[in-house]
Amino acid sequence: MSAKRICIEKAKQISDVGDKDEKVVINSLDYDSLAKIIMLLPIPERIDMEEVCIKWKEACRLAWYNIKEYKCESSIGRSYDNRVLTQSYLQEILLRCGIYLKKLSLSDVCNSKIMPFIGDHCKNLTSLECKFSIDSLNDFANDFVQLTELENLECLMLDVLIELHEESIIAISNNCKKLKRLEIPYCNIVSSIDGEPLLSSSVLYELSKLQYLEHLSLRYTISLKDSTIIAIANNCKNLRSLNIESCNAITETALVALTNLKNLQNLNLYFTKGRILLIDNDEFLRKL
How far apart, in Å, are the Cα atoms of 133 and each of 4, 18, 21, 91, 270? Predict the structure, then answer.
């Protein structure tokens, strides 16, 4: 018998002794039944229920598997609207339901230090959206690395001005094979060793390994080059949407290669250098 089950059984014995009063009907329920009742409560109240007694604390541990999505708001929520959501409280939530989460949306109540924690406790995430404020990023490039181990990710959106280590781009490409949506705008690729040059000036080329990509946003990515776009056009055949707004290093050569993408439906070239050359080219537009 596991240590957890022994603990539960002992708690049950204690509860049975203390609950002779037939009026306390709820305490006569087994752990699974009590957990199902607790699951009807909002998240903060589930955490509060752990303080009732030993039996309820154990039952609460069984009451998180129905939480598949979580979105950070400014407050904890519901009857707790006057309590501001903090990163430490978010960690308490993720400790309990992180293993069950499929979708997680982070806001500026967090800083980048939350990301290793997510990597450890939210292994089954399929969608992660980060909307940090610039002031909360701290050491984003280092903190981000552990997220690349989330092998089930299908959607990763980083809606903030960021720096990423070139190793992180390589890790995304090698580990997050299931990605269908990737948004890393305003991305600046840096070396993992301060002061050292990049191992490759075209590390974004690695993204062409993501063969299931359907939506890709690299807008305002200064280091984006023709070679990356050509590789994406040749390998990411499922791509339906591509945003390379204000990527001024992209030329006509790369844009012509995009005509190979038969499923492409949405192409944002706003303020892209090669756009001016092709915008009036009927043959190019017809191929798209």
Answer: 41, 51, 54, 19, 25
Tell me phi and psi for residue 183, to 5 degrees. -125, 110
Give the predicted TM-score (pTM) of the model.
0.80
130 strand-pairing partners: 106, 158
**Is the CB of residue 220 less than 8 Å from the CB of residue 244?**
no
pLDDT (tens digit, 9 = 90+) per residue, 225-273? 999 999 999 999 999 999 999 988 888 889 889 998 999 999 998 877 6
| Structural domain boundaries in the chain | 1-63, 68-287
Q: Are 47 and 92 in contact (CB under 8 A)?
A: yes
CATH superfamily of 68-287: Ribonuclease Inhibitor (3.80.10.10)
122: nearest Cα among 156, 89, 92, 97: 97
Sheet arrangement for strand 103-106: 69-71, 103-106, 127-130, 155-158, 181-183, 215-217, 241-243, 266-268
Q: Which of 31, 24, 28, 29 is nearest to 4 (CA)?
A: 31
Residues in the chain: 288
How many helices and strands in the chain, by DSSP H and E? 12, 12
Distance, in Å, from the CA atom of 130 to the CA atom of 87, rounded to the nearest integer, reads 13
